[in-house]
Amino acid sequence: MTGSDAVISCRNVWKIFGPAPQQHLDSLTRGTPEARGQHVTAVRDVSLDIARGEMLVIMGLSGSGKSTLVRCLSRLIDITGGSVSVEGRDIGAMSEAELIALRRSKMGMVFQSFGLLPHRTILDNVAFPLEMRGQDRHARYDRAREMLALVGLKGREGYFPRELSGGQQQRVGIARSLAIEPDIWFLDEPFSALDPLIRREMQDEFLRLKGLLNKTIVFITHDFDEALRLADRIAIMKDGMVEQCDTPDRIVLDPATEYVAKFTAEIDRARVIRASGLARPLNGVAIEGAAVAGDLSIRDLGRQMVADSRSHIPVAGRDGQLIGVLDRQAALDILLGKAAA
What we know:
With about 350 residues, this protein is of the alpha/beta class. About 35% of the residues lie in helices and about 20% in strands. It is built from 14 helices and 13 strands. Helix 7 (about 195-210) links the parallel strand 7 (about 185-190) and strand 8 (about 215-220). It starts with 7 loop residues before the first strand and ends in a 5-residue tail after the last helix.
């Protein structure tokens, strides 16, 4: 994917907090050592392209810069250096009116705090951004009811936020962000405050919505298991920099830095790596028998890998077309661990 194909494209983005941030950036780009105390460099020279319909999960430890980066992508804060484009338009060059129009028409945002209006029903909460857009009462309520049904809250339209559980309140926040039909959806650790059972339920709900809606999604989390469940690609950040941005398979199989390797060291590789991630080009390999689905994990295929006598197993994509062959021994090494020499 090139920058021209991307819905969101950022190039060499920096965000520095402190006095005279541009001067500090100039000194950094000249190679001057960074002085501690006065400045915080929250985002360092980040370049990313995000495709239409892709879910990019940004993750890292607290203070890694992931939330600041997303606020740069949506221009909730202005960047210190570099550029951010949305559908080919430099949002840094937009007027305030143009930026407001972009957010109202194209962007939905969900943050850790639900931000619901306590004195309004959940129907009114979901309809609120449409009210701000000037949509008539009948149309905005119809849309709000549709979105509440989509997130599983049909029949609760007249409830107030205080009458809902934390998970239900989060669904209201998601419904509200979807009401404006955003093409781009930013979510900053939206499930982090929920207990594990509700969090898993919300992840399932989110995956269901992802299957129904073709949105470009940027999702922040510090939970690697959550990232693995949701992501098309994962960007791992450390000290404001993106250490690696790749598919979950590639991040686990081929970590780009020592930090990424440590970050993923305790992950069950058989649960993460899919058949498509291990598939290699046919290169004249004779194909025998039925293909396995490329989106199945090695753990999902465990029994078959143990029982199958083929040394090379064909792998098919979602369209049923062959995408390569899976080396059975390589899969078994991931599933069971390599045999001692």
